[in-house]
Amino acid sequence: MSFRYIGSKARIVEAIIEHVGQPDGGVFVDAFAGTGAVAQAASRAGWKVHVNDHLASSAIMSFARLSSQADIPFAGLSSYSDAIAALNETRPLQGFIWRQYSPASSNHCAVSRMYFTEDNAQKIDGMRHQIRQWREQGVITLHEQQVLIADLMRAANRIANTAGTYGCFLSKWQRQSLDPLVIEPAKLPESAPRATLGSQDVNKVRCKPEDTVYLDPPYTKRQYAAYYHILETIALGDEPEVEGVCGIRPWREKASDFCYKGRAAKAIERLVSSLPAQRIFLSYSTEGHVPIETLSENLAGIGDVSLHSLQNIGRYRPNKAASKAASDVGELLFCIDKTKQAKCVAA
Questions:
Q1: Where would one find the signal peptide in this protein (predicted)?
Q2: Which of 74, 247, 248, 304 could lock 340 by a disulfide, CB 3.0 to 4.6 Å apart?
């Protein structure tokens, strides 16, 4: 994956899966899937995986990473590689992304939104339209559609004129943003354990007592629905009413309680308590809204809790100034076993 994603666990996935252990007959439920790094590591370890994220873009990206060559034969287009080649030859279209997120936006609003060059924006529109047409005509399956949408989001992200998120665009074109958009096929295994997909509020995610649930809630005030709004639009293929200089799509219905300092502690405690799963793993950061001591005390009332320090990783750095000022933050993993007497032990 080529995403610089806020809170990404890409560098510590092996440490997380080491604590999770080998498959035990249940499903590994990644309830805040993000870009799917942890879910993919669990799948590679042999787990059947269910990925969920309230953002459709994140859910689709995660699910695509769990796919195998056997899941997407692309019989209607001969092969996966042929489908990618056909997409790259798709005729550009002056559609929604071009109108709203390229300099063409200056034709109908007061700002030239420099997220994508006009050529690349038209390619995104043309490719997304082609994917929709193939699905409507029955040329591709739902699973194949989701993989192609993930491929398109990954390609668009590589040439986006941003500092890593889509909360704003840069005022000058960066070198990579002037490159032509080209979709590259994902490297998929020949086969993989069964995977399923959900895109709903985390409090509605279903699981069974024998399942293992992994939670990676937002730590800070950054609302993912606003920071990754263009990827969400590409994923959904819709044309929402956008507003402001940056053309952000409506996002407040997906605002997360975990991003509010006054709500985060109760939101985490309530979620962990409500899950039927007996084994729950919770990632959290030392820079999070909830102090680690408070979180430890709250979780200790739910089950047997062990706390593990994984490693220090760099704070999210959207630009050079932030890189110079940023310090490392500690990544922690709470292991909660509801079958045992409540207590908390730091490892």
A1: none
A2: 304
d(CA 28, CA 43): 8
Name all domains of the chain by residue range, CATH numbers in brackets: 1-66+193-218+256-347 (3.40.50.150), 70-191 (no CATH)
Q: Which helix (H) or strand (E) holds 332?
A: strand 328-337
d(C-alpha 102, C-alpha 113), whole Å: 5
- Spatial distance between the Cα atoms of 220 and 5, rounded to a whole number of angstroms: 13
252 CB neighbour count, 10 Å cutoff: 8
Q: What is the pLDDT of residue 164?
A: 87
CA 330 to CA 260: how far, in whole Å? Answer: 20
| Interval 82-104 mean pLDDT | 98
Alpha-carbon gap, residue 43 to 31, rounded angstroms: 15
Residue 175 has pLDDT above 60, yes or no: yes
Q: How far apart are CA 112 and CA 105, in angstroms?
A: 5
Strand 304-314 with 343-346, pairing: parallel
Contact 269, 298 (CB under 8 A): yes
Q: What are the tens digits of pLDDT across the range 220-235?
A: 898 999 999 999 999 9
Separation of alpha carbons 57 and 146, rounded Å? 10
Tens digits of residue pLDDT in 4-20: 678 788 889 999 999 99
Are the C-beta atoms of 151 and 90 separated by less than 8 Å? no
